[in-house]
Amino acid sequence: MDKITNPYDTFKTKISKYPIEQNHWQVFKDGTTIKQLKAGTCMIKAGDPVKHAYFCITGLFRLFYLLPDGREYNVAFTLEDDFATSYASMINGQPSPYSIEAMEDSIVIEIPYDLLQILMDSSHMWERFVRVSVERLYTRKEERERELLYLPAIERYQAFLLKYPGLHQRIAQYHIASYIGISPVSLSRLLHPAEH
User: What pTM was computed for the model?
Assistant: First the structure.
């Protein structure tokens, strides 16, 4: 895992368009934790209570459901400079319906939900930053649902490439197949029709 001299600098750069007062920034740093996770580690397991959001400094995560027949269904990926958590579970105090697994060695900032609430209540800029982040995630979720309902498999694959540039070079094809809702064999046929 690459050493990051100060993960908080990365986060501060991400939120730089929201001028956070120094005292609120210090409260954030004092209340959060830097975590290093090895590839294959579940940060959140389905059924776990969710009390934190995670900001990915380096690495890659997948959010997935384990289906009753044992198959895994990828619903999203989180890359550097983005958040991962089960937001509905965190807000509603319910167990997570899906798992979040590190696909690469990763570094995250673990942010307690209670701390986010305190910061949002005391700082308009924190409230705005969190609102914009949640709006972006909601928009992605809505786009994904539309893709699954209306687009043929090849267009879902193209949408994956646009949404996650370069990710197809970092993960196995079966993870992409799971994400776009087809089997790995079907994805192979889609990408290499002359070979089948």
Answer: 0.90
